Amino acid sequence: MIHIDDELRRRIDNALADRCPMFIATVSPDGEPQISMRGSVLVFDRETLAFWERGWRNSAANIENGSKVVLFYRHPTERVNLRFYGTATMYREGAIRDNVMSRTVQGELDRDPDRTGAAVLVRLYRINQLSGEVLQER
Questions:
Q1: Residue 135, in any domain of the structure
Q2: What pTM value is reported for the model?
């Protein structure tokens, strides 16, 4: 079972402010890996992460093509390193998009002044430590 507790929620929701932006890795349909930084990752609910997609480059295309994803959180001074594995779904319109946009950090929204972005939900199926130890699994 996946259950993001309050401490983990605090870490993720404050990652950018703590200078620990998360990274997302995706894979294209032909197997090409892609990694990029995400400053807007937040906890959507106890088993789902979300972020605001505004770049519309490789990661977005991979998500739309059904790529599984892994998000990496690293807080170097506290020596916390976590990987969040999940399946991603993009929302270009509607209530979920509006919900995520309303919760996205202002600095990320400022980089999307025309609000052309979309919400991405990542339903988690595993959380690992960097060592590979599984902490939670669906």
A1: no
A2: 0.93
